[in-house]
Amino acid sequence: MVHTWRCTGLRWGGAEPCLVWEGGRxxxxxxxxxxxxxxVDGGGRTCVGARGHPCPVRAGVPGRSSxxxxxxxxxxxxxxxxxxxxxxxxxxxxxxxLAWFGPGLVKVGITVVERGSARLLxxxxxxxxxxxxxxxxxxxxxxxxxxxxxxxxDRIPYxxxxxxxxxxxxxxxxxxxxxxxxxxxxxxxxxxxxxxPVAFQAVDHFGVFGLDGLPAADGVVSELAxxxxxxxxxxxxxxxxxxxxTGRGVVVLDTRLMTGWELTALLGEGARDAVTVPVREVAxxxxxxxxxxx
Length: 294
Fold this sequence. Notes:
Radius of gyration: 20 Å
Mean pLDDT: 89
Structural class: alpha+beta
Distance between the termini: 26 Å
Low-confidence stretches: 285-294
Shape: globular
Number of strands: 15
Strand order of the largest sheet: 3-2-1-14-4-11-12-13-10-15
Oligomer: single chain
C-alpha cells in the first residue's frame, strides 16, 4: 500500500524552512536537498478547513488557489483576522515594518510583536526594518499614512518578487534604499502618538534564503494535478517559494499549491528532476510572470 501525505504548508522555524505535514512531521529544506513527489492519481484537491478545524464537507477547491479553502471556510478564516480587518480589538502590541523585495519594491506592513521576524520570512522579504511599535489601530494608521503620503503599497505580487531574486544588488544598495524610505516615513506628519518610532536597523535575509548565485527562473508552477510529478534540487527557499533545479530548467514552486492534495514520495533516478505538472514560462519584468510550474 502506497503511503500518502498531506502538506499543511511551508513554515519558517527560526531561519530554517520546513515543509509541514498533517500529524506534525517536518521536512527541512536545506540548499541542495532533493525534492520529489507525485500527486495521487484519481483524487482531487480538497479544502484545508479553517482555524485548525477540518472542512465539514471536504469541499473541492481549484488547483490554482493559493489558499486551498472553500468559500465557507475562507469566510470563517477571515472572521477573526487582523489582516482582513475583522479583529480590531487585539490588545497585543504590533510592529510596523518596511520590507524590501528588489529595486523599487518596498512595502509597508504590520505584524504582532511576539512573532518576531517570522512574517517577513514568510513573505520572502530580502531585507526589512522595523518602523514603529504600538497598539494595533495605531499601527494600522501608520500603514495608511505611508500609503497615502509616500505611495508605499501594503501588497506586492509574488510574481514581481520572483522575477528579481536572481539579480539583486549588493547589500549596501538593498539596505540603502530601505533606509531612505524609513527616514522619509518617520519624518511624515500625522504619525500616531501612541506608536513608538524605531531607529533604522536593517535585517537582511539574502543568505538565509540562499540567493547567492541563484539562476534566473525559467518557469513557475501554476497548479498541481492528479498524477503529476515534481522533482528537483533545492537552490533557494524564499517565503513560500521553492526554487528548484529540474530537467526543464529552474522552476519555482509556490508550496501553498501543495496543500489540499494527497502526495506520495517519488522514487528512482528519473524522479529527481522530473516535472509533469503545468508550468508557465517566466517573462521579463514588466511582462509579468505567467503563473504555473511545480
